[in-house]
Every structure is written in C-alpha cells, then in structure tokens.
Amino acid sequence: MDSASATPPAAGAELHALAGELYPICRSITGAGTRATLDTIARFVPLARTEVPTGTKVFDWEIPREWNIREAWIANAAGERVVDFRRHNLHVVNYSQPVRARMSLAELRPHLHSLPEHPQWIPYRTSYYRDTWGFCLTDEQLQALPDGLYDVCIDSTLAPGSLSIGEAVLAGESSDEILVWTHVCHPSLCNDNLSAIAVAAHLARSISQRPRALTYRFVFAPTTIGSIAWLALNEDKVGRIRHGLVLASLGDRGAFVYKRSRRGDAEVDRATEYVLAREQSGSVEDFSPYGYDERQFCSPGFDLPVGRLTRTPNGRYAEYHTSADNLEFITPRSLAASLQTCETICSVLEGNRRYRNLSPKCEPRLGPRGLYSNVTGRNPSEFEHALLWVLNQSDGEHDLLSIARRSRIGFDAIRTAATALRDAGLLEALA
Amino acid sequence: MDSASATPPAAGAELHALAGELYPICRSITGAGTRATLDTIARFVPLARTEVPTGTKVFDWEIPREWNIREAWIANAAGERVVDFRRHNLHVVNYSQPVRARMSLAELRPHLHSLPEHPQWIPYRTSYYRDTWGFCLTDEQLQALPDGLYDVCIDSTLAPGSLSIGEAVLAGESSDEILVWTHVCHPSLCNDNLSAIAVAAHLARSISQRPRALTYRFVFAPTTIGSIAWLALNEDKVGRIRHGLVLASLGDRGAFVYKRSRRGDAEVDRATEYVLAREQSGSVEDFSPYGYDERQFCSPGFDLPVGRLTRTPNGRYAEYHTSADNLEFITPRSLAASLQTCETICSVLEGNRRYRNLSPKCEPRLGPRGLYSNVTGRNPSEFEHALLWVLNQSDGEHDLLSIARRSRIGFDAIRTAATALRDAGLLEALA
Amino acid sequence: MDSASATPPAAGAELHALAGELYPICRSITGAGTRATLDTIARFVPLARTEVPTGTKVFDWEIPREWNIREAWIANAAGERVVDFRRHNLHVVNYSQPVRARMSLAELRPHLHSLPEHPQWIPYRTSYYRDTWGFCLTDEQLQALPDGLYDVCIDSTLAPGSLSIGEAVLAGESSDEILVWTHVCHPSLCNDNLSAIAVAAHLARSISQRPRALTYRFVFAPTTIGSIAWLALNEDKVGRIRHGLVLASLGDRGAFVYKRSRRGDAEVDRATEYVLAREQSGSVEDFSPYGYDERQFCSPGFDLPVGRLTRTPNGRYAEYHTSADNLEFITPRSLAASLQTCETICSVLEGNRRYRNLSPKCEPRLGPRGLYSNVTGRNPSEFEHALLWVLNQSDGEHDLLSIARRSRIGFDAIRTAATALRDAGLLEALA
C-alpha cells in the first residue's frame, strides 16, 4: 500500500511520549482528569467541548454525578500508608464514594481487590452505578497485611457536575462523515486506551493538515455512557456517518484485529478488511455485541456502519485492565504502525468511488489517448490492466475497492487508473 | 444441550423391548399385522384410526387390495417343509398372491430370492403392484435344495379391504404443527423401522404429558402409499405443518444423518443441524428424492418443510432389508439417544422465537433490572453475553436459533436470556 | 459424457493437417492473407463475407487502412539477405509501412526485435496503429550481425481497403443463438490461433450436418477491431445471443481453461464448468478484462453471456507469440479432444431445458408407465434415480443442467429421463 500520507519514522516515539504524558492522570467517566486529558489532546487538534449535566436523561440511562478524587490511602496502626493512591491511580476503585474510617482488617477485607493469579499486579475495578468504595492492590500486598486496625481515607466527591466530550469536525468536500471514536475514561492503562488516544490525536492532526474528500468527526469521550450520551444528543447527525471506526488498544505487540460492524458488509468493513489483507497485518472478526462503544453505534435502533480497530482485543491478554498494562506494554513501533494503518484505511475510504464508463460498448482506444503502449504482442503493464479493469467494471455498480479486490491490483493503482480515465473523458464519477 | 426433558437411562431397555414385542408381527402396507402394530402403539398415545378403502384414488395412485397371510411353505417330496413362513416373516415375498401347486425345482426357481453375497441372510422382497408370488431364503438353503418335486403353499388373500393409518394430534398453544411421521409397513426388520416406531411412540407419550407451544401430529402409516393417501385425504391440513420430521432407522450403532427438506433452509433444517452440530452426534445431507416418505412431503406440489432423521440411512448398511436387521442390530443405547435427540429438536423448535427489542437505541441498563453485575472491569458471564446478543439481534429479523448459532452460545442459554429480557419489559415476542 | 456426436479418432490428424495448410499464410487484421484463410475455412462451412471499408467508424475505433505485403528483407553489404520474410512470416513487424533504404546497423538497430531469453525464437510483433516498420529475428541472428551498411526492403502497402469477416449462420429450431467466435488475424502461430480455427471449422461442419435445437453463428474475424466492427454492425442482433464461446489456443498439451463471462453465472458458464468438471479435463477462471474478443462482448455496454475456452491461456506459456508456437507445439490429440469438448458443451447447451411436472403432488406411479421396476426392496437404478430427480426438481425453476449438478447424475442420463417423462405425459417443456 503506497499511501501518500506515510507516517514518518519518528512518529512512534512521539506517540509513545504522548501516552507517557497522559499516563499519570487519573481519568474516569467524569471529572477533572478526563478534562485534563481533553486539554492535552486539544494541542493536536482543536476540540469543541460538550459538558452534559448530571441527571440528563440519555435514552435508558442518566448522566451520573461527577466524580473527583484528591487522595486515598490505607494506613496501618503505626500510621504507615500501606496502600496509597498517590503511588498508582488503580489503587482506588474508580468512582468510590468518600470514606474516612478506622476498621479491622476483617471489616476492610470486602473492600480490597487483588489478582491472586498475578500477585504483583494491581487490578482495575470500577463501580460507577453503585454507591460503594474500595481499594485495589497487589495480591502480595494483600497477603502481607497483618491483622489489626486500619485507617481508611478516600477523599473523593460525587456531586452534580457534568460528563465531558471533546469533538473535532474537519470539514471535507463532502458532508458525509468518517467518525473516529476513542474512549478517554480509563486511568493509567496504556494499551486501553492511551494507545488509541495517542493514535487518534496524531491522526486528527495529520488529517487536519491535508485536503479531505470526506468530513471527519473525531470524538474523544468516556466509554458506554459517553457514546450513549453523544448518540442521544446527536441523533439528528447520525445520518451523516458514512463510515465509523472505534479505535482502542492500538499499542501492544499483537497483530491488528478488526471487528466488523453489525451490518458486516459496510464499506468500512470492506475497506479495512482489504487493507489488513493487503498488508498481511491482521485479521477480521464478525461483529459481536460485547466490546467498546461499537456496542452503542451498532445497537439495532442505530445499526451504523461502525467497526472497531484494535490490536489484541479487550480480555484476550493477561495484562488487560491491570497495572501491567503500562508504558512498557505498548511500543513505539506498534503505535506508529497503527497510525499508518488508520491513515491507509482513511485514504481508501476517501478514495473509493463509483464511476460510469462513458464509452461502454467495446473498449475505447487507449493508445491515442496516451494511455496504452502501441507496440503490442507483449503482456500489458499493471497500469494497463488497471485501466481495463476500471473500464470493464464501471457500470455504476462496482466501486474502486471492489475492483481492486476482484483484480488483485492495489487500490492505489486502481485509483490512479480511474483518475487517468476520468481525465481522458472516459469515466464520470457517480455520487 | 441441557434440555429440560432428559430421557431417563431406563428408556433404552423399554424402547428395545417394544421393538422386540413388535418383531414377530408380519406387517405390510395393508392388513391385520399393520393394525396389530397400531394397537400396540396406541398403548403409548391414543391413536385416531383411518381406514382408506381399497380402490380409493389418491392422486396418481389407488389403494390396493388388502393383503393377509396365514401360512406359506415349500415342502420337498418327503413332505418336509424346507422353507416355512412360520420360522421367519421374510420367507414370503410381501404381497404374494395365493398359490397351491406342485412343481419341479426348475419351475420353482424363478420364484426364489436369496443373497449370494450374504449366504446366511434372508432378503426382504415385496411385490405390491404386480400379481406374483415368491419366497425368500438364505443362499445356503437355496444351494442345498436338491432337484425334485416341491409342494408350494401360500395361503394369502388379496381382497377388498383398506389401508390403515394411526394418528395422534396433541394440541398446543399454537395450532401450527410439528408433523412426526413414521412408517409401519415393514415386517420383522428392526432398524427399518421398529426402531423409529419405538422412538416415535415413546416421544408421543412423553410430549403428550407436557405443555406444548406447538401442536404435534404423530402419524403411523405404511410408506409411500400411506403418505400419498394421507396427503390426498388431508390436503386442507398441510398448511398447518410448520415443521416435519420423518423418523426411520434410529436403532443402529451409526451416527445420526439428517436429510434436509427440499427447501434446504427450513426451520426444522436449521434446528436439527444445530442440535447435531452442538452435540457432535451426526451429519447433515442435502435433500434427494430417494428415501422414505419425505419424497412425498417434498414433492414439488407440496414442498413442505419436512426433513428426515435416521442413523445409517437406507441402503448404506449391508443388513438393510435382510434378516440381519434383527434385534441384535439395534441397541438400547442408540434407541435412547435417538429419543433424546428427537426431544431436543422438538424443544428447540418449540422454543424458537423472534423478538423485538423495545429499547433498541443503545443498550438498556441491565444492572438496575437485576440482570447484570455492577462491579465491572471483568469479562461478563455467558448469561450476560447472551443478554447482549439477544438485545442486539432482536430487530424482528433474527430468531433465537440464529442468535444461538451466531453467538455460539447454547440455545437454552439464549432462550433463558430472552425470557428474562421479556420479563423485564425489554423485548416483545413476535408472532 | 456419452455424447451422441462423438469425434472420430481420425479427427486429430485432419485438424492438424488444416492447421498445417494455413500455417504459411501471412495473416493480419486486414489483407489478402486473412481473405485466403476465410476461403479455406469456407470449404468446411459456407461463409457469408462482410468487407468493412477503411475509415468506417466502429464505436470509438475506425477501420484502418488495409495492409498487404509482398516481400521484406535485410541484406548485408555483400547483398546476402540476412533476414528474409520469405523464410518466416514473423520476420516482419505486422503492419509495417513500406521502406527501401540503406543504413548503418546503428540506424537499423531500433527497428530490430529479438528475444534474448529465447535466442533461437523469432518474436511476434505488431504495430497496427502507429506508422512505423520493423523486423523480428532470433537473438542469435541479431548478435551475429556485424557493423556495416545494410539494405532494407519492406515492400508493403497500407491503403484504403477493407476488413474481412466470415460468418456462418446455421438455423435451428429456435432463433436463439450460440455464438462461436474465432480470431483469424495471427500469422504463422499455431496454437494462437490456427488450432481454434481448425477446431471451429470442423465444429461448424459437424453441426451443420445435424439437427439443431438452437441457431449457431460461427464468426471468423480479426481480433479486437474485428469483434468491435462486428458488434457495431450487428448491434441489433446481439439480443439473440443466448450463449457464446470465444475459441482460442486449443492445440497445446495443457488442460482446458474456461474463462467465465462477465456475468459469471451465465448458462454457458454453468454448462462449460459442468462439462470440464465431469470430464476432469480442465479448470475454470473468473472473468478478467484482458484476453481475446471476450473483452468486447463482455464490455459493460454489452455484457453478453460469452465465455472463452482455451487450453493454456495467452501469456502463460513461453512459446506464446513466438516462432516456437509452431506445428510441433500443437498435437492431433489435443485438437481432437478440443473439438470433442466443444461438441459436448454445445450438446449440453442445446439439451438444457426447464420442465414442469404435471403430476406435482406426490410421486406419480412410474411402474405402470413402464418406467420403474416393480420388484422393490433393492436400490433403484441410475435411470430410476434420474426420473425421481427430474420429477422432484421440475417446478419451472430448475433446468436439467442444475438437476444434473445437484444429483451428480450425468447430463445425458438426466436428459434421457426427462424425455421419457415428457413422452409419458408427466412433464411439459417450458419455453
């Protein structure tokens, strides 16, 4: 795939540095950490911000109270902080209500979460819609806690506020949109989802700096409640979404896995499947209703053409949703290749067209138009094959992507041939 | 498949005992033996009886004279009965006309049938629509017959009478029917078809004792002319047949073979294919117009959704239509598993539904409805996956069976999830 | 395939002899050689001749000036003819303009074409639409040419004239046509295309001598400009073409390769695929817009059901378009088998029908109609299976070819069964 917009080699380091910059922030589905994250992304592309107030009804859901946290710790009888949120954001169960108490280990125990199968990792736990609190710690820490009294402090607030969404619309020749959706609610987890945040921010910047055949809509928002809120507030706009990609987990060392939209044969499905097959860089799976925000876009009442691009999907690697999903788990090389693949997919989606052959009865003469070698008797070049394929298939039914697939000629070569034929007056582009 | 109606372990012995009880009776497409067989079946489920008189026109056919036989033998010059119907029903060609004669071996020879490739087995031969007579014997017997004169006696009658059909209709919530068809015309052949008679009789009893979402129609009748007669007499009822199964050869040690209906994608085809694949208990074949009574149900003028379930199909085992298809050839274990599989298929057909998601825009909240764990960060349970699949696919197009197949979650789990969602007001059942 | 019209064993020698007779003629897309070739073909089947004048507009093209050549040579300073058209037609670039000049080897060199990778073969080059001239020679000849002055002579004419097409229409019961198209423009190349000329001429003669269910249209014409001209002049007739075959390269030792029509599932595609699979004599490929005259028939403005039968396709053998495509490269055995396969395909296309079962409810009785054995209990014969298949599938939707494929019974047996059923009043043929 000889795409014009090649990712420069230095991109991997930049992408990884951005993940590193965002890593210390404690994010959640609402709150200051998420807003700080959007501020950082806005350095790459201007973001329109939407604040959805607590209590707003969004379909079957309601925007929860906003959560903010200052500190959280467990101290032993000697006053030593044996677990401290300052050391790792994952130590506190996300959305814990405030607590300040002294209790025995037995009383504390139901509030402690660890991973016995990975005794040195801290698990990631949330409790958005239940009033409770808790701490996460390594199983080694947990096992080492002696009986006794502990002081527990979670200095958090759950109060009316808002849910934050950042959005960049980059207008193109057509008002038809490519939606690129990235969730921003996870704290200190690198593959899920600082990797995709970094890729999407760079992608948005890169695309903002070039002409666009289609309009792009980049949205950065919390997962589930964020996409539900966005859909509820933008129901009038979903008809513009011609293609959509949910980006997640794009930094690990695994191959790409594309999950098809619910429709299964949307143009974004065909384009991404084509790109991954052509680059032998990953595989494709059918839609399933478990995952990230594609769940909402592909709910039966919307059924939008939105697929999901990841490397190793959620739940299929041990480090998933643990402290081991750290900056070492993601690599500059993977991040750079992810950005490049996203750009290639976008390039195919923008370049894909249907044409009508204006000289459909028999082949038109290509030689006099400077498109074909005049000494024959030899096999034609790939460009000449591409011309023949485009002419033959341009009956208004087949787009360039389907011609590329059928002919096994690269999409860029097919697009170049189509452009040459259009310039020669032999094709007209269809809407 | 964790079906509710599990076949008890003792069923195999009972099924085999019923086959043993029916084995000595000489059945044919008409006559006393067939009526005696229906009497026995009626102990399991009440049977409405139809007698179709000789001469009745049924489509292109006509009900033949009724055949009854009392004795049949060949005696040598010494008066010894060298072949005797009392020893085995197969010794006489089924539907032989009466004969009482003395003749040389040379004259007798064209009336004698044996199986040289299996010299100790008696073949099964019929001659329903040609006025002739004959004997079947082992090839060893045949080769041992010395030249000389023989006395031949077939004390049969071919006279106006009727063809007998037994039928049990078990009403269900819906008047849509599952037709279960079993042929009862074969004498002293165990796999073909005492095995299926035993399975169908037990199935009818079991289903008669439980609530039914659909109406069941069990028919026991002779093959070919029986189904032709039934269709001719019940043409006004065939529109009710939503699913149909022809049962045959269900006692041998082979795996199940399901033959699809002529339509190929009828619900009974999808359901049975699903059950056999899920249980890894057999394979599926495309429709072909040779076989048992599915030939008539799937003739182009009817084209009913009727498939056929057997173990090893007719003609694919050496013992087929010979005296070696005896009580040792069928096993209690196979019979019990056949009954269980029939019950599972019926359970899937009765449980299959299409629903409409009443909250189709984004996912509804499952936690507050008690359907979903509130502490997230872990992978959901199979039940939670089933809920998501049913919600996502319930757009009115997909039935539960298709959701089970696509999700690779068991049908029972999918059905349980659908019921829970319906009870929570999130789904409505479609007609 | 037990086709009635079997190719006699002597056919191979006759076919090869015809290729040998045509080999010395210098053909091109216009001119005397092509007319002489049509004269020879006309010995096998009367040909209507069309002469399309130079300058005639045919779609995007124009009939070029007519090319004729008398002699062409290169002589060294000693007057020796080092390259001479009399020794091989390929020595002159086809459509060379006239030239008479003395020049140095350096000046001559750009006009000389050889094949370094096959130093003993002369390449075939053409220059129909560019005013130039040239010679082709073996690379050994080329390398051996010393520096010095050379006399160059091409005694050709490019003048107003016409393009020649020969056509035989053999009327059948139906006016629907099978088009058999063969290109006749290549000089002294045996596989491409004297092989197909020989096969098509014999096929035309054979078919002209038997009854025909369909009308045949055999066309012999130059490639590309010939089919474009024919389509331009016969646009009103293309609606009659129900099936079409472009024949080419039918003499080499390779297996058959059938290239599907652009439609991909035309009856000729299904029939040829069936014949090749049944005879295990070749493979099938999807349509592509590079090749022979199928390019024009399958251009999107026509999209006719025309496929292409070859053995090894153009460009996939080293001898292609070189002097090594000579009389040794094609074999009597391959030519005879090609003729036989063409006859079988035509036979299937003519015999293929759709019928309607006039007794569609249940099976009709076949025994009383003399079509079925009366002693049952054994497996039916292939003929009996064929009867059952034809009856079952004859609902007006399925043609005999689809029944043959689905039943895995040979087409001839299926056709025989259908004829017997029609004669028994059980089927009616559909239009």
Provide a descriptive summary of the structure in words:
The structure is a homotrimer of 431-residue chains. Chain A is of the alpha/beta class. Chain A is 30% helix and 23% strand. Chain A is built from twelve helices and 19 strands. Chain A has helices spanning 11-22, 32-41, 105-108, 139-144, 190-208, 225-233, 267-279, 294-297, 332-351, 382-393, 400-407, 411-423; strands at 48-53, 57-58, 61-62, 66-75, 81-84, 99-104, 112-113, 135-136, 149-159, 162-170, 177-183, 215-221, 241-247, 256-259, 282-285, 306-310, 354-357, 395-399, 427-429. Chain A has an eight-stranded mixed β-sheet, sandwiched between helices. In chain A, α10 (382-393) crosses α12 and α11 (400-407) packs across α12 (411-423). The model of chain A is unreliable at 1-5 (pLDDT under 50). Chains in contact: A-B, A-C, B-C. The A-B interface holds A 58-61, 123-130, 224, 227-228, 231-232, 235, 262, 286, 288-290, 295-296, 298-303, 315, 321 and B 357, 359-365, 367-368, 374-380, 385, 388-389, 391-395, 406-407.
Proportion of residues in extended strands of chain A: 15-25%
As a percent range, the share of helical residues of chain A equals: 25-40%
Number of distinct beta strands of chain A: 19
Q: Look at the structure and give the mean pLDDT of chain A.
A: 95
Key words describing this protein structure:
4-stranded antiparallel β-sheet, homotrimer, 431 residues, alpha/beta, 8-stranded mixed β-sheet, elongated, 30% helix
Helix/strand layout:
Three copies of one chain form a homotrimer.
Chain A: H1 11-22, H2 32-41, E1 48-53, E2 57-58, E3 61-62, E4 66-75, E5 81-84, E6 99-104, H3 105-108, E7 112-113, E8 135-136, H4 139-144, E9 149-159, E10 162-170, E11 177-183, H5 190-208, E12 215-221, H6 225-233, E13 241-247, E14 256-259, H7 267-279, E15 282-285, H8 294-297, E16 306-310, H9 332-351, E17 354-357, H10 382-393, E18 395-399, H11 400-407, H12 411-423, E19 427-429
Parallel strand pairs in A: 7-8, 11-12, 11-13, 13-16, 14-15
Antiparallel strand pairs in A: 1-10, 2-3, 4-5, 4-9, 6-9, 10-12, 14-16, 17-18, 17-19
Helix pairs in contact in A: 1-5, 1-9, 5-9, 7-9, 10-12, 11-12
